[in-house]
Amino acid sequence: MRQYLLCLLLALTIAPAFTRTRHFAKDSYLSSDEVQSFETDDDDDVTPTLSRDTFVLDDYRKLTTDPAAERLRGQALVDYVNARQDLWTARLSDKFESYSEGAKWGLMGVNNVANSIKARKHESATRFLDINLPKNFDSRTNWPQCDSIKQIRDQSSCGSCWAFGAVEAMSDRICIASEGKIQATLSADDLLSCCRACGFGCDGGEPLAAWRYWVKDGIVTGSNYTLKQGCKPYPFPNCEHHSNKTHFPACKHDLYPTPKCEKTCQDGYTKEYKSDKFYGKTAYSVHPSVEAIQKEVYTHGPVEVAFEVYEDFLNYDGGIYVHQGGKLGGGHAVKLIGWGEDAGIPYWIVANSWNTDWGEDGFFRILRGVDECGIESGVVGGVPKIDSYNFDNDDDDLF
Ligand SMILES: *[C@@H]1O[C@H](CO)[C@@H](O)[C@H](O)[C@H]1NC(C)=O
Ligand SMILES: *[C@@H]1O[C@H](CO)[C@@H](O)[C@H](O)[C@H]1NC(C)=O
């Protein structure tokens, strides 16, 4: 039954225009002997190494990933990534080595990273604005009054990235549009469990459908598991995602089942479920170009983006991510908050939902301008409906 529905969903949202040069076959991994010989062979290989000092975007565009590198994993992959380039560093987290493929990739949760043809019919108009875009832009410093932009959440052992990227950006946008007067933390649980059109809950969903749900049905507030604040806090605790740190227990092997849709607030919360809802005015996709994405973020704040996650991304430990090797795991949704340049290398600044122990305190940077892993072709957002809220409402419990 589920399989059928999933296929239907795939058929509806598939984007034929989306192809990548770095195409990965789903082969089995190399044995350690093969890895050994591959690494030795590589010494005479002409494939250029990427260096911070000599990096040229147009040259990178023409590169394809070595097919043998697709099959690397574990320490061999980490060593390969670190030896080949110095834009980012990889680090192995021992505790995830034992994970089954299903457990490792179940967290991805987006089927098609590029927006469909249909979605592209409703593109944000901010791309037509005449804006003199700055070289560097970070939503955290541009809207310092909005706490949600600085926060990193944790999806736990649930493929709910699509819901997190959405509620994170919606919360930011409510704050930005209200000029800091409304600091709401929208509930990932409410969206995850109640939006049927979004897909499959903890087994994956579609970002644009999440934004449409916000417009049509609204989303209540809710904090993380630890704080237990708002109408519907997240039901799952933080856990370590591919990180070697030990603050939290490692994410469990099996994904949690999708929580039941409860149209009530937690006990003790002062508001009714319905009156706690925040609504969007519009939901749209963003034209897949660097400038259109920049104008959208500059005007309305963070956006939700989807991209392809390969095994090397799991080992990201800082820097500007460019895909090097490892197999394709699945689509992942996150929140893009700004951009910059480091020694002439352009990047996007992105918030992941694997808590602050992963990456650069929960954030990561990824190459900008080459649609790296599809990050520039699956951008969605929307504008909050805030005129119906009373800004002077002294309800400081707005969570
Ligand atoms: C990960 O942590 C373990 C135990 O704390 C340590 O032995 C190991 O060296 C760490 N690995 C890396 C790559 O830092
Ligand atoms: C829960 O959320 C609060 C507020 O965003 C944050 O300060 C806290 O660190 C979070 N707790 C965990 C365990 O992530």
TrEMBL record:
Peptidase C1A papain C-terminal domain ranges (all copies): 133-383
Domain of life (superkingdom): Eukaryota
Position of the signal peptide: 1-19
Entry GO MF terms: cysteine-type peptidase activity
UniProt keyword annotation of Signal present: yes
Coiled-coil residues: none
CDD domains from the UniProt entry: Peptidase_C1A_CathepsinB
Single Gene Ontology BP annotation: proteolysis
Keyword set, alphabetical order: Disulfide bond, Hydrolase, Protease, Signal, Thiol protease, Zymogen
InterPro entries: Papain-like_cys_pep_sf, Pept_asp_AS, Pept_cys_AS, Pept_his_AS, Peptidase_C1A, Peptidase_C1A_C
UniProt similarity note: Belongs to the peptidase C1 family.
Protein name: Pept_C1 domain-containing protein
Species this protein is from: Panagrellus redivivus (Microworm)
UniProt lineage: Eukaryota, Metazoa, Ecdysozoa, Nematoda, Chromadorea
